[in-house]
Amino acid sequence: MKQIHLAAQLPGIHNTTVWSDPRSESQIDVESFIKLARTAERGKFDFFFLAEGLRLREHKGRVHDLDVVGRPEGLTVLSALAGVTTRLGLAATVNATFNEPYEVARRLATLDHLSEGRAAWNVVTSFDAFTGENFRRGGFLAEADRYTRAAEFLATARELWDSWGAGDVLADRAAGEFIRPAAGEFTHQGQHFDISGRFSTPRGPQGHPVVIQAGESEEGREFAAAEADVIFSKYDDLDQARAFYRDVKRRLAAYGRAPGDLLIIPSATYVLGDTEEEAAERAAAITRAQVGPRTALTFVEAVWGHDLSGYDPDGPLPDIEPAPDNLVLKGHSTFRKDRAATARRWRGIADERKLSIRELVIEVTGRQTFVGTPRTVADAIDTFVRTDGADGFVLVPHLTPGLDDFVDSVVPLLQEKGVFRADYTGTTLRDHLGLAPRTGAPRTEKEAS
Ligand SMILES: Cc1cc2nc3c(=O)[nH]c(=O)nc-3n(C[C@H](O)[C@H](O)[C@H](O)COP(=O)(O)O)c2cc1C
């Protein structure tokens, strides 16, 4: 029976997190991370995931703090979690545009050692010049080049990981030889990176940490088909998810890969209740907490490109024409592209259904993937995976840290159905995902010689 993969994401970044709820805890205290990781491990999840944002968003020139902002760096947090968990995979988002391969490869290899084979890297390519201003070379990369750099970045990281063979640390006391002479040697010459020397970190238990890709463009899908072990998506509508699943799995053959070599794991939210009605009521209340009056106006401003502070969020959309080239919300990927078309679409929905600004924003941005009793949610998740909408989900609670209710009530039902592990059977994240350890071919030949 097809097995479900589950991951946990610490809430944050978007307005899906209800930070103002009295039950929501800090997004920065180590205790929040530890609680969620321990809950996920108790639930036998595959991994814990952290997103990344490299610049605080701005709205009309001021910091946009309607959502959770100000979060610690991912790999550092995961290093702390490696010490308080034993099986849970640990995945961080690290940008391939603003970093250097040597540094990222070294930190990931280190996390793989510290966690005994549980490290994963979500390779993102966010490129916008606004974020780039925070970095030495500024917004230096054209959008068209982001995946060429990401592909070469990852290839270079793999060369660095392969520069140490499994037996390169000799620690031979009698001979007085600590490592093999060639250990860590590398040379990489390419369009984006021209580096050589010796890599400082011996090979980690997984060979290469698990590689995740998050991005949905044509180039992003090809990159994932060629290189990634996992792809995140945001398709939680079953029909759209199935289309994405078919499309991505179809691309694998061209790279000599089998469908099981790349797992498709969309992010998903859930709301549970003792009855369907209770869950639906809760879901409606959560959505209204997620889209307060100011968030509603901000999102319409982001699409319309105008200051709309004089408008009533509970009134109709403004009658004025949008100015979609005017970027009033910076650093928010949702409102980066196609704003004229988005404005037309939103106006159409609001007119047809007589929705206020706030009701419209709830309608177009609100996401409740699974709403119901633990039984109906377990059934829906199982159906989604069994019918090839996904290979599993990254669950994002709306409260920090969250997820206890899911682990206590839904996970046992999935286990009962035989579609989710009762316990871990391996020790590494690659084991949990059903993936073989990965190393590069050239180094394997060298090892054999
Ligand atoms: C599910 C999902 C999660 C993402 N998470 C992050 C993230 O944590 N940090 C980030 O900078 N970008 C994140 N991104 C954005 C993309 O990596 C980035 O915008 C990229 O340029 C989009 O690539 P695309 O044009 O192939 O969609 C995410 C995208 C998706 C679909």
Q: What does the model show?
A:
It is a single chain. With 449 residues, the chain is an alpha/beta fold. The chain is 38% helix and 16% strand. The protein contains 16 helices and 17 strands. The strands form 5 sheets. An 8-stranded parallel barrel has the order 1-2-5-6-11-12-13-17, surrounded by 6 helices. The protein has a 3-stranded antiparallel sheet with strand order 4-3-15. α6 (218-227) links the parallel β11 (210-214) and β12 (230-233). α9 (293-304) packs across α11. The chain is globular and about 80 Å long. Residues 442-446 have low confidence and may be disordered. The site of flavin mononucleotide has 19 residues, from β5 and β12.
What's the topology here?
Elements: E1 5-9, H1 30-42, E2 47-50, E3 58-59, E4 62-63, H2 74-82, E5 89-95, H3 101-114, E6 119-124, H4 129-132, H5 146-162, E7 169-172, E8 177-179, E9 185-189, E10 194-198, E11 210-214, H6 218-227, E12 230-233, H7 238-251, E13 263-268, E14 270-272, H8 276-290, H9 293-304, E15 329-330, H10 339-353, H11 357-365, E16 370-372, H12 374-386, E17 392-395, H13 404-409, H14 411-417, H15 429-433, H16 441-448
Parallel strand pairs: 1-2, 1-17, 2-5, 5-6, 6-11, 11-12, 12-13, 13-17, 14-16
Antiparallel strand pairs: 3-4, 3-15, 7-8, 9-10
The structure holds flavin mononucleotide.
